[in-house]
## 1
Amino acid sequence: MSKPIGVRIDSRQEEIWLKFKEFVEEKYGKKHTVLGNELVRALQLYLDLYQKASKNNFESHIIKKKAGEIEIKSLKEISYDLLNTLIAISGYAENLEEEIKDEGAREKIRKIKDLATKSLKMLQERIEGME
């Protein structure tokens, strides 16, 4: 037996609700009798993800929320993303350094490259410490 439940949605997040209803209608070809079930599934998924992050210690995970989406990434995974970014910055600075003729600008780029290299080493040590 189903039970009607009412909630209010902030007008800034109304678009998410409309997208959700549209998703349910596309999936089932109707909203009647299935919208509530899909909403409960979505809420259960949210709670499961939140509890998973809590059990695995919030300090080792980052929960990113944006407009109804949840993404959980471990700090190790985020560290590898940052590592790849630093590698790209270092390579870009090295290529730029070779192309620039002005010695003052080259020195600034060398400093950026050196800082990126130091950051890479520090980050690699921290990643190794996580293992």
## 2
Amino acid sequence: MIDLSQGEPFAHILCWVDGSDEACRAAELAAYLAQSLGAKLSYVAVGARIGRDEGFEVYAQIEGVSQPIPPFLKGNTHACLEQAMSIAAKMGISGAERLIESGDEVMAVCNAARAQDADLVVIRKRKSTLIERLQGAAASDTLANRCGFAVLSVG
């Protein structure tokens, strides 16, 4: 339970954007919440790492390209992330951040929230499978219980 009597309850809100319509709506809600609380706002998307083959490594060395390839965002994730940043800008939220992580989705969001010192994670409400419910492995449960964050699941 969060004690709201000790001043500002949330100073930094992190919203997980996965490209779904629900996540895009959650991103908009996160912006309204950040604006009303005067909180910092970050959006995180989780993509897949694309490996480099040996031929590319040789080419990169010749050309002096040493930057890692950013994670690949599937489906509408990039568009949803851009829409979220646009909404935040239109609302006058300065300093909203866009983060792109890779790996297991829930743990990547957990690690991003820790690295950003977020105190609230906003996610879309997902339907969990029977196995996830039996294991208590829903994304909101994992973020709240294993990662220790307050989670607002928007559906």
## 3
Amino acid sequence: MKGTIIIFAVALLSIGCKSQQVQDRTIKLTVTETSDYCGGAAPNEELMLELLKEKPFTGTIYVHSISDRTDDGQKLVISNGELKQSGFSEGVYFVYFHPKFDREDPANAKLGDEKVSCLEMVSFQHSAKFFITKETKSVNFNVHKMCDPCSPPRP
């Protein structure tokens, strides 16, 4: 009986260590970006092709393992398209440009219902997703910047 308990405890510890190794492992993220044209007058073909060409992304993204963003998520600052990050366990991750919008935040009460609804909608649109497995050492993905639907179009 005592031997069975010890074997069971060792098995549990080894399972815990394996999942911990996945979370503590550093993964290299390589992020590129493309974007929509958000100007006024119709752009020329050269500009449109340039916007669709992938370039290294620099900026902040928000990564969540649940698409409705009910998890804590991670705020990641990417510089020149690369970041080494730990804390990922196995699974799918959703990438967002905006922090999760909180309708209950008193600062948002002054925005008006239409603006609040738009900002809430935008905060739940993921721009990309990626997968982490036990073997993952690096992840490459592209984020696409769309025009802001909550602001009036440029003249």
## 4
Amino acid sequence: MAKDFYDILGVSRDAKQDEIKKAYKKLAKKHHPDLNKGAKASEEKFKEVNKAFETLNNSEKRQAYDRFGEQGANGFNNSGFGGGSFNAEDFGFGNMNDIFEGLFSGGFGGSRQNRNAPRKGEDLKVEIKVTFREAAHGVKKNITIRKKESCKNCGSAGGFGKKTCRSCNGAGEIKRVQRTILGNMVNVTTCSDCGGSGNSFEKICSDCKGEGRKTTTKNITVDLPAGVDTGNMLKLRGEGNAGHKGGPSGDIYVVVDVEKDKVFERDGNDIYMASTITFSQAALGTTIDVPTIAGKTAELKIPQGTQTHTLFRLKKRGFPNLNGFGSGDQFVRVIINTPKSLSKKERELLEELSNIESHEAPKTEKTFFDKFKDNVKEAF
């Protein structure tokens, strides 16, 4: 996973801007390529320092980074808040190094140190469903998760009266030599009595069963900003499973799922809807009220002679930009409703209009149109 910007600059998460600038100047001078010619490590480090300072020195980017991680500071993309991909450790599959150690532990002797070293707790993933309008305005959601927290009874040790494991003599591994036609083969397995820690206890903790962590249920409030979309991710730092051997806690990745709306469809930050109007409204022009995601209606002027499927735009009535700059638009597609049945009076008026349209209009055309206007408004 990406390095933490605060760790790169060597400052705390509540560091003031002066502290951040001071740390940056010191590190930039130390790792500047011109002062470290030919040092590839210094060049890469210099890039890291610049990237971290560029984010933390900007109050808006820093706030986004604290909430959503590195990609949150660069703006949200289609992949989500935290964006990008997940590794095996992100969603509770553990540390990949442990997996490889298990596969290649046949005598190389590297597994003991890793098993006893502090390790970060597993990251968790949770999905939150929100309505279309909640996504437009932002919303706070309460979620309930099951996670592992450090056992309070034993202080995360796993037991009481710590001592060296007798089965493996503190090695955490059991080595067995097997003679074959190719020579002696050493088979190394994790000690089943101490689980590879090299230690045992006079008394195992009854609360956590020796794990040092206990599964609990926790309620968390998640603050989703206005403009979120399906697939966006929010990273909750340190809210995942407690670490192993005193390691840091994992994180929670909240994945957003926005429900479809009966009226609106979304395309980026723009929204689309359809509104039905009558033939007379399209021919004569009118003003209609259309719904908006703000929960209010907006007036839309329909000019005379409007054709079906004409698209009208209401500026800045769409979704707000997650970066906090501007909003999308609302587009209204008008559809002319053709009546399926006509009264006798309606038919006569339309037939008379049809005759006028197919022949040269007589001098009385204006008089007829006035009559048509008065009757069609009522008819449709």
